[in-house]
Amino acid sequence: MGGIPSTLIESELFGYEKGSFTGAFRSKPGRFQLANGGTIFLDEIGNLSLEMQTRLLGFLEEHVVNSIGGVNSVRLDVRVVSATNADLTDHIKKYLFREDLFYRLNEFEIKMPPLQERADDIYYLATKFLVIANAELGKHVFGFSQAAIDFLSEYVWNGNIRELRNMIKKSTLFADEVIETEHLLVDAHGEQQTASLDGLLENAFMKGLTLSAINDVVRKVVEKRIIERVYHQSNGNKMKTCAALGIDYSTLYRKIKEHGLEFFKKMVTLITCFWSAWPDQ
User: Fold this and answer.
1) Within this chain, do residues 258 and 279 fall inside the same structural domain, yes or no?
2) Which of 80, 172, 226, 252 fits 133 for a cystine, CB–CB 3.0-4.6 Å?
3) How confident is the model over 220-279, as pLDDT tens digits?
4) 3-class SS shares of the chain: helix, strand, coil, % to 5
5) What is the band of 209 on the pLDDT scale with cuts at 50, 70, 90?
């Protein structure tokens, strides 16, 4: 309902007869007529104007339509399913939505919880969107690192499934073989975002995590950022990175693997090449 101009919504839903207005060179059935014997889905029902709400209420009560310029009423058998992400009870208080239409539509209600309350769905949806993104972008990214999966599970999805779909498509564009956490945090210009910590904390509080669990979330995010920053400030020199962080080489190697950092793969490749070139004696 939000994607159709208010001046066209009536003719789109109920149809019109030839010559009923300027430009009506032929008759056209409305969406309700086309859905006769089946189901019509009205998305974003909260955006419907009050005038059209009245017209819709009349159809729901009588099950008949009159096309624009038409003379005869046509009885239809149509199941109406509607959806909204708006608070219609609040719209009713503000006189933006008819209360009688609300109760007429609300015979059977299905509430869809936000994505952040359906953690079990996130990995399934992310995998599905990855397949779609690969096909659209001509890429061959085959999965997610464990760190990326943890990030997706802990992230607060204010934009719900649309935000998840967009993030996966964007990450697929920047990834080579596996989507890492840094790919999920890259914006459309290839620059890394830094607003994930607040989202992770918000989600941790919503889940009622203990203080130790919240501290673990914060530690992971902060530790990863510190390692990345020091590594880049050291111009990719891992020994200098170890010295600056006060850790040994094996600890750095373990942290890089734990956080799924982008340069881990390059590090493994370099170590492999080094040992393969080392003489047997």
Assistant:
1) yes
2) 172
3) 777 777 787 777 777 777 778 888 888 887 787 777 777 666 544 444 444 444 444 444
4) 55, 10, 35
5) low
Domain that holds residue 203: 114-208
The reply to whether 3 falls in a domain is no
Domain presence at residue 255: yes
Q: How far is CA 30 from CA 14, 76, 84, 184, 239, in A?
A: 4, 12, 22, 43, 71
Write down the pTM of the prediction.
Answer: 0.54
Contact 65, 74 (CB under 8 A): yes
CATH number at residue 168: 1.10.8.60
pLDDT value at position 233?
74
- Overall domain count for the chain: 3
**pLDDT tens digits for range 143-179:** 998 888 888 887 878 788 988 999 999 889 888 889 9
Residue 4 lies in a domain: no
Residue whose token pair is 């729901």: 60
* Same structural domain, 152 and 179: yes
Query: Are the C-beta atoms of residues 88 and 46 closer than 8 Å to each other?
Result: yes
E-state strands within 66-208: 74-75, 79-82, 143-144, 178-179
